[in-house]
Amino acid sequence: MTATTSIAISFILLPLAFLTLLTPLKAATFTIVNQCSYTVWAAAVPSGGGKQLNRGQTWTINVPAGTTGGRVWARTGCSFDRSGNGHCQTGDCGGKLSCTAYGSPPNTLAEFSLNQFQNLDFFDISDIDGYNVGLDFSPATPSRSCHGIRCAADIIGKCPAELKAPGGCNNACTVFKTDKYCCNSGSCGPTNYSRFFKNLCPDAYSYPKDDQTSTFTCPGGTNYRVTFCPTASHVNLLDSAT
Fold first, then answer.
1. What's the mean pLDDT in 21-42?
2. Which of 67, 87, 211, 227 is the most exposed place for a label (fewest CB within 10 A)?
3. Model confidence at 177: pLDDT above 80
4. pLDDT single digits (tens) 183-227
5. What is the pTM of this model?
6. How far from chain centre, in Å, is Cα 83?
7. pLDDT bracket for residue 14 (50, 70, 90)
8. Number of Cβ atoms within 10 Å of the Cβ of 57
């Protein structure tokens, strides 16, 4: 190959490389399914807002590529007026049907950041804000390196008395508000309370520094499915709260 030919090829490949970099990333589709025996009010931020899901109903949202700090959760015990104003017993987001802010504890969280380092999606289930409804968070097409996670144990039924809340089970940080449980200083370790959550839900975050066994990845562009009450044996949380 001559020097002239090499230069000509380089001029051809260079624009192609730029076109590859400029190719827009596709939004991820999140399919949210209510398999609970009762109604939940699904919430999703920063994309989606909120929607009432009766038993067996599904809600599909498109989340833009590059979204960070994303959350999906179920709210229970809700009542809203025609304007979408009201209140939920668990997971309430400022009294709005369509959420623009995170929910109030206790609420089990599906968390995600899309198209991050090496174009990977990072996702997890978190009990750091407590637990109200069982969750399964899975790629639409699982593989050995991109698989689903689940937290659907009877946490409410086994919840320590001091962490119990109407409709759910609080994390220790919510109740005691100390550095030992909240990691405000950035340095903390597991406690008996975090171990309670971890033993029942090994895939889920149990305290803020629980990264090693709680963060999972899939290739950017993956679509996801979030299922509330993924097991038939899951306890009806509204009944258990009464």
1. 89
2. 211
3. yes
4. 988 788 999 999 999 999 999 999 999 988 899 999 999 999 999
5. 0.85
6. 27
7. very low
8. 15
Only one residue has tokens 């639409």, namely: 140
Q: How many CA atoms lie within 13 A of 136 on its CB side?
A: 19
Kindly provide the residue ranges of all beta strands, DSSP E only, lying in 119-229, ordered along the sequence: 120-126, 135-139, 149-151, 164-165, 168-169, 216-219, 224-228
Query: How far are the Cα atoms of 18, 51, 102, 220 from residue 27, in angstroms, in the given order?
Result: 21, 20, 21, 10
pLDDT given at position 23: 57
d(CA 126, CA 137): 11
Is the pLDDT confidence value at 4 over 70? no
Is the distance from CB of 134 to CB of 108 less than 8 angstroms?
yes
DSSP bridge partners of 124: 111
- For 35-45, give one letter per residue: b (16+ CB within 10 A) or e: bbebbbbbbbb
CB 194 within 8 A of CB 182: no
Of the ranges 8-17, 126-135, 196-205, which one carries the lowest mean pLDDT score?
8-17
**Could you tell me the maximum CA-CA distance found in the chain, to the nearest angstrom?**
82
Count CB neighbours of 228 within 10 A: 27
Give the neighbor-by-neighbor strand order of the sheet with 120-126.
49-53, 40-45, 70-75, 109-113, 120-126, 216-219
For residue 2, give both structure tokens. 């001559």
Of residues 29, 36, 65, the one with CA closest to residue 52: 36
